[in-house]
Amino acid sequence: MNNLTLIINVMKKQVVLFGSLILALALLILVESCKKKSDTVTFTMSALVAQLLGGNIDMNGATSPNNVPANPTIVATFSSPVNSASVTANAVTLVRDYDTKNIELTFTVSGNSITIVPKTSLGNGALFSLNLSSITSTDGQSMAAVKRTFTTIGTFVPDGMVAYYSFENTASDVLNRFNPMVGGVIDLTYATSYSTAAGMAAKFNGTSTLIRIPKGDSLMLTNDFTLAFWIFADTTSRKGQFTMGVAGWYGFQFEIFGAYDGCKLAAQYAFEDGTSGSEDLFFAGDGLTKDNGGWKGWTFCKDLKTSGGVKFLLGSKWAYVTCRYKSDTKLGTMYINGEKMKEQDYNLYDPPKTTVTGIKYNGAVGNNTFVFGFIQDKNNPTIADDWAKYENPANNHFKGLLDNVRIFHKALTEKEIQMMYDSEKL
After folding, report:
1. I want to staple 115 with a disulfide (CB 3.0 to 4.6 A). Which of 108, 128, 132, 141 is the partner?
2. CA Rg value for the chain
3. Which residues does the chain have with pLDDT short of 50?
């Protein structure tokens, strides 16, 4: 073999070796690339729970939970660490179903999880949808949009409630804000309520039963107001029924008339000039409005003349009464059993009532006690007339049952009122 042949053979071997090296390197790059691709974890939500001391509620299952608390702490867990900058009010939303309200939330991002807390109570018995979209991981992956629904626990009650009396063998406020004073529960007993689910109700004897709750004027520190309650008025009393009140109409008071042919919420209202005056949300079931013989401002009145009148609704049977004042529209409305019975528009009254801004306590300083069972407190009464004195058992003390009394610092919508009635009547 001459030198030229030797050189050519050596060069061929080098070319083959170099090619083999190139091929091996390419294979190595391909293997590593496949390995990295297979090692990458797809960014998804792996768990969603409402945290409870007694055990978490799974919100990521096939069935939408119906026992989530009204003040939940919700934790979403993901397959990879979350990019906190992607967690915004647009990326995480909580929407209430019945009115499509977007609930304000706070977020805390920690590693693979997001803690979600509503800024206000969600209320009971309401359906919500939790929506997560455009959230990314710290390695830049985007998550597919997720929607989960849940219902808060209990019968339907909107947010905005400031006092609640369930009367489950106690006269205390469930919210622990407006409890009776020491010694303030007088001759009160309890009886079976309107349904098994409702439990017990407060029973008033019609002569002396009284529940005395201090600082009742604070119940009126609001422009918008709703009072809702279940009532069984005993017609054997054959007299008017002062059901509850704080300084009578100088604060607010609800009563049923002696012949059970009507009822009203009398209340004090604030005007723009700093004065105030009383007005009755009066319902007689006669169909009268401002256009057919009723008082100015009366825009609606349910006609019950051919169906037994107000007595058919309120006489010795359970009824659900809701009274509200809505300041932006200046409308006062009464509902019985979820149905609108009376509405009045303060824009149609004479000044200064046309300038009404909201309800207002205007009673005596010493009589700001809210009471169940009468029109005002037995001590330092604002109304001095003999018929308004607690000491006389022949006066219009309430005789009957009360249950699930709720006071809101908001004007509930008609849908909320109907939903409350439908939820509680079962």
Report:
1. 108
2. 33
3. 4-8, 10-18, 21-38
